[in-house]
Amino acid sequence: MKVPTTQVRVLYVDTDQMGVVNNVHYLRYFELGRAEWIRQRGKSYKRIEEEGYRLPVVEAHLRYRESARYDDILSLEVEVEDVRAATVQFKYAIRRAADGALLCEGYTKHACLGADNKLRRFPDDLLVMLRPDT
Amino acid sequence: MKVPTTQVRVLYVDTDQMGVVNNVHYLRYFELGRAEWIRQRGKSYKRIEEEGYRLPVVEAHLRYRESARYDDILSLEVEVEDVRAATVQFKYAIRRAADGALLCEGYTKHACLGADNKLRRFPDDLLVMLRPDT
Amino acid sequence: MKVPTTQVRVLYVDTDQMGVVNNVHYLRYFELGRAEWIRQRGKSYKRIEEEGYRLPVVEAHLRYRESARYDDILSLEVEVEDVRAATVQFKYAIRRAADGALLCEGYTKHACLGADNKLRRFPDDLLVMLRPDT
Amino acid sequence: MKVPTTQVRVLYVDTDQMGVVNNVHYLRYFELGRAEWIRQRGKSYKRIEEEGYRLPVVEAHLRYRESARYDDILSLEVEVEDVRAATVQFKYAIRRAADGALLCEGYTKHACLGADNKLRRFPDDLLVMLRPDT
Asked: Is residue A19 situated within a structural domain?
């Protein structure tokens, strides 16, 4: 098991009447993990936007393994799986911090857009930053 | 009981592990009701924004009476309580459509801002539109 | 283009600062479409739960094509792609009602669980109901 | 300014097309602050539920002062304003951590219910725990 990128505690509002975290909210956890991964590489997504780039999600995939429950601490593991000239794919594993059980895994694929909303090659510093861990 | 401004059905994602709609989501229903009230007066909030005005919520109050449950149809009753030169207060009652039971009531107060984010008097057409029912 | 299963209007709260519907909320639209598809087959998901079955999402995939914007009416097209003894896969297409443009497509896969949280074969009436359109 | 009960960073999904945190989400921050306040007094809300009590929100009030923006760190200040035999009122101030600016303040009032959903006096340990700071 990897060192988690960040952790988050499950709120009541994110549970549903099955008594578990509703499937919708995992994409929210993905965003949180991704933002912290980027920050830990020395830049914030906010800064990326200020520099004129945006990385909207163009594809997402989630596999729900076990349920997260109210008040659980979730460990978010994030890495870059693949980076191309103008797209990047992040990979996620969400674990229950208490025992490391895998709750959800998946990926999101992002396009790099300029301020004009057109596809753009990543600028060099982003390309270096997004290079997959080896 | 009034004719509802609009209706909405409770989704699973809006329930929590108490088996009822979580308190957070009622502000979402307020937005839905308010948007439809405005539309029924002949203008959309989208159009108001396009004309350079914005009506952010500056205050909100909610009183939760009974629980809404999954798959319930909710009737949203909306009216304007008070309109001033640059503020307007909407009032809401959310009822279970099946039996008319009052589930939640409250209000939101909005400021009228211009594109520069400064307080603005309502333009005449908005002022007429927002005049409380008598 | 198919007859949509249902339609929904984009709320302000579902937009983000890119000025479009945030990627997270499409799983919410999937739930809405799925619930209405089931209802139109003569049963509600609520009723399925009351009869002791639950169909949690075990996998989800989303491909974001174009942006949905505030106040857009979205057409939700839903169908069953595949049904097995104890799993079912729904397929979705979300279109802008105004021009039919495809905004998002994807699928969700569901397991059939009993009240004991164990995998169960679909009861006969559900199996018939979920049979893919031909 | 008080020591904040906890802090949280604004996610992209919580902004709206005005470029600020949407009004709905502050009730979510209230829940987060309240949960951490309770935990810091030596008990979790999860534990309270396990002991057979529930504290649903019966009233909420929010006053929005300034806007929170993407990636802002928010400081959540929470205290108990008033506790009676079977109700408790929490008070909140949400500040931008960077400069202490007050963004939102408000309160939530909660009823104490037993497992049977009936109003219950707080058990002694909860009553002591909820006693307002003096």
From this structure: yes
Q: Is residue B68 part of a domain?
A: yes
User: Chains that contact B by 3+ CB pairs under 8 Å?
Assistant: A, C, D
Contacts of C31 in chain A (CB under 8 A): 24
Is B59 within 8 Å of D63 when comparing Cβ atoms?
yes
Over residues C74-129, the pLDDT tens digits come to 999 999 999 999 999 999 999 999 999 999 999 999 999 998 999 999 999 999 99
For residues B27 and D80, give the distance between their C-alpha atoms in angstroms, rounded to a whole number: 23
Tell me which chain D residue has its CA closest to the CA of residue A12: D31
Question: Is residue D6 classed as helix, strand or coil in its secondary structure?
Answer: strand
Residue-number span of the structural domain to which D73 is assigned: 6-130
Of D23, D28, D54, the CB nearest to B18: D54
Residue D24 to residue A131: CA distance in whole angstroms: 37
D40 belongs to a structural domain = yes
Facing residue for B12 by CB, picked from A12, A16, A70: A16
Is B64 within 8 Å of D56 when comparing Cβ atoms? yes
Summarised one tens digit per residue, pLDDT across range D36-68 is 999 999 999 999 999 999 999 999 999 999 999
Quote the number of domains for chain B: 1
pTM of the full structure: 0.97
Taking the CA of residue D87 as centre, how many other CA atoms within 13 Å lie in the half-sphere pointing to its CB? Answer: 10
